[in-house]
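A favour, since you know our structure tokens better than I do. Could you add the entry underneath, on a fresh line?
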Amino acid sequence: PCDDRQATTRQVCVWKQAPCDDRQATTRQVCVWKKAPCDDRQATTQQVCVWKKAPCDDRQATTRQVCVWKKAPCDDRQATTRQVCVWKKAPCDDRQATTRQ
């Protein structure tokens, strides 16, 4: 697995099976997942998910942690490959996320 020693703030970690957890990914380190929980149907090479332990939800994602989804809750109509969602409490939708957020 690519850990703190391998990934910097400008490098992206590509994970396959093992989950990247608090010890491996920080708020400035991005994990690209292939399989579960964010799998091929949700994350592509242009879409990144930042996780802590479980799927990043209201309690886990901060303003510095971003999730890019294809399907629910932030789906194709909300996030594109150049748009990222910043979560606080409610899902960030078209009115909240722009191409610069």
Q: What stands out?
A: Residues 1-101 have pLDDT under 50 and may be disordered. The CA atoms of residues 2 and 99 lie 28 Å apart.
